[in-house]
Amino acid sequence: MNQDALPSRRDAPAPIAITGANRGLGLAAARWVAGRGHAVALLCRSEERGRAAAASLPEPGGPYQHKVFEADFASLDSVRTAAARLTALGAPLGGLVNNAAVIPQDRAESADGFEAQLAVAHLGHFLLTALLMDSLRRGAAERGGSGVRVRIATVSSGAHYGPAFDLDDPNFRRKPYDSLVAYQQCKLANVLFTMALARRVAGTGVEAVAVDPGVWDTSLFRDYAKRASFGSMPQPAPLDERAERIVGGLVAGHADEDLNGLYVSRLAPAEPSEAALDQGAQERLWSWSAQAVDLEPDGADRGAPSPEDA
Ligand SMILES: NC(=O)c1ccc[n+]([C@@H]2O[C@H](COP(=O)([O-])OP(=O)(O)OC[C@H]3O[C@@H](n4cnc5c(N)ncnc54)[C@H](OP(=O)(O)O)[C@@H]3O)[C@@H](O)[C@H]2O)c1
Asked: What is the dotted CATH code of the domain comprising 3-309?
């Protein structure tokens, strides 16, 4: 291969990190961004499933390769290790998709003792975002002049329209567990987090956006639809190119648009719930989350393990 033909690292599309990239909407987004020349950092619970997914993606256009990082989002240690391995590569990031989620039938806890849905879909992503922030800022600094936006897209859901976030009992220790209420709560946390993050990244070249992808026929949906209490649901669509573009396009497209702090439903900006727009609630969740994952109150790392420790 003629190395001279490769774009320089500076000009090449920067790698995009995607959690839960081995199937469903995460894999769909990975397909989209890889198709636009980006290498993908696939953060997956199973390295084997991650590798199979990486092998199915279009080849990236630049000098970076797709790479799998084992990361169990139900363990903060595992998230820290994956983030340390990723940052140790020294590559700037062109975006981050916080996508992984799970809906267990019964109440389950993460390795750190948090309710499993909140741990996977919110706390793990809260920590990961903080730990990758320097790489994202570097991606933005290197590409600012070219008008490319570095976005953190956090995948929420229309399910976030519901009650306010219950900070008195976020882990369902006192109230009866309902997996759908827990799902609503963690999807609301995704929007509250995005709004608080958007204030913190404003003007840095990094943008935070929350996305409701719509209803797609994935493993999550199939389990979700089984819940008798859920009632009627729109017919799920098979994953297609549109599904790829909804999330993938947010981090590898819309270059001229300022999407910071937006809630995007399918492909259009939309109004999130009243509970999601409550700035006090956004900041209370931020402080609680920082403490829960052992970050400084402003979300800065207290000292990540060195790559050698990872
Ligand atoms: N499908 C829909 O209709 C719909 C609608 C609205 C919002 N969403 C949102 O879209 C996102 C993706 O969901 P999906 O529908 O694509 O679901 P999916 O097909 O079930 O995929 C979920 C992904 O999350 C990963 N994951 C689960 N637990 C994990 C853990 N502990 N650590 C690391 N990764 C973990 C899964 O990995 P494994 O393969 O290892 O389990 C899988 O890659 C979610 O945030 C969901 O809330 C989906």
From this structure: 3.40.50.720
Name the residue with tokens 């963690």. 186
Ligand 1 pocket check for 210: Cβ under 6 Å: no
Segments making up each domain of the chain, as ranges:
3-309
Write the CA distances from 104 to 2, 69, 96, 225, 263, integer angstroms: 50, 24, 25, 12, 26
What is the best residue among 23, 179, 185 to mutate for testing ligand 1's pocket, by most ligand atoms within 8 Å of CB?
23
**H/E stretch holding 18:** strand 16-19
What is the Å distance from ligand 1's center to 123 Cα? 15
Give CA–CA dist 72/70, Å, rounded.
Answer: 7
- Burial class of residue 141, CB neighbours in 10 A (0-12, 13-18, 19+): middle
Q: In which residue are the tokens 């970050």 written?
A: 295
Hey, which residues does 19 pair with through a beta bridge? 43
Output 9 or 149, whichever has higher pLDDT: 149
pLDDT tens digits along 124-155: 999 999 999 999 999 999 876 555 689 999 99
24 lines ligand 1 (CB under 6 A): yes
Q: Select from 103, 120, 107, 109 the least CA-distant residue to 154.
A: 120
Distance in angstroms (rounded) separating the CA atoms of residues 167 and 55: 41
What's the pTM value of the predicted model, to 2 decimals? 0.94
Identify whether 64 is a catalytic site residue. Answer: no
Beta bridge partners, 151, equal 95, 207
Model confidence pLDDT, tens digit, residues 230-257: 556 778 899 999 999 999 999 998 888 9
Is 50 a pocket residue for ligand 1 (Cβ < 6 Å)? no
* Ligand 1 atom having least distance to the Cα of 100: 24
> Shortest CA distance to 16 belongs to which of 153, 212, 163?
153
Contacts of residue 132, Cβ cutoff 8 Å, sequence gap at least 6: 17, 83, 86, 87, 93, 96
